Amino acid sequence: MNQSLEQVAIEACLNIGVQYKSVVADGEWHSTSLLDSHKNKGNGRIKIFSDLKGGVAFNWVTGQSQNFFVNRMDAGSISEQDRAKIEAEQQRRKSELITKQNKAAKKAHNLYVNSKVTPFDHPYLKLKRILPYSTRQANWTKSVYIDDKWQKITIENALLIPLYNEAGTIRNVQAIFPEKHPELDRNKDFLAGAELAGLFSWVGDKTETVCIAEGVATAFTIHEDTGFRVYIAFTANNLLAVGQTIRKHLPEASIIFTADNDKSGVGLKKATEAAEAVNGLVCMPPIVGMDFNDYAIYLQDVENDK
User: Fold this and answer.
1) Is 101 inside a domain boundary?
2) What is the pTM of this model?
3) Under DSSP, is residue 262 helix (H, G, I), strand (E, B) or coil?
4) Contact status, residue 231 vs residue 202, Cβ threshold 8 Å
5) Which SS3 state, helix, strand or coil, does residue 237 take?
């Protein structure tokens, strides 16, 4: 069944967490909010091509993008000329995306290697009761949409965590702020324009058993408690891709996905799907709303209260 341009645009936006809104078909980016944002921060983008045959949705926070197309004709009736135009346009957009990602990757590398060593008393490390490991510290500059215009803000003393691709090259960085920033309404960020899917980081030397966690604090806690190498996928949706990469390079390893016990159940669902795909295992803290860092802190506090 054929879908309208609006229908496929809405579906694409939902898939990457962007709030759909009707925009002009001028081939330009138009800002919108994210589905999980309580305020309109302009961190979503929608572009409709001038030929009304499709567009692109983009999430600046996660770096995810999704193309969408509508075909009002039967597939067999597309002319070779139209097919060639579509393929050329897709290739052009792919080339633009790669260029943008390569530029962001260079920025990520320079930002990380030129940053300072993280002190042990960084507020986030103290809050989570973890060691700094491979994190670095630097000021984080971000363009945000405030009062109907773009403005640059600087967040001091952000933790930086490198995100690597399969080849071991830094392609992105995650910034973790000392506290939630009021304009961003969060305490974490990724580099704008950089890729995220399939990227990962890790803590610890190589071990026969490895774990894969969503977040940095969770990964550091698990490593400290077990001694295992722990890979960081950064999002639940990235667990499968990271698991497949790890399985490819460590065919004999025991892989444990350490799921977050979030109220939505997404953490367990995505960890289970990833584990089934790579013949891995899943474990999860027993208390709803906690990840393994939360649970470790909870157990420490219980012990201290005795």
Assistant:
1) no
2) 0.76
3) coil
4) yes
5) helix
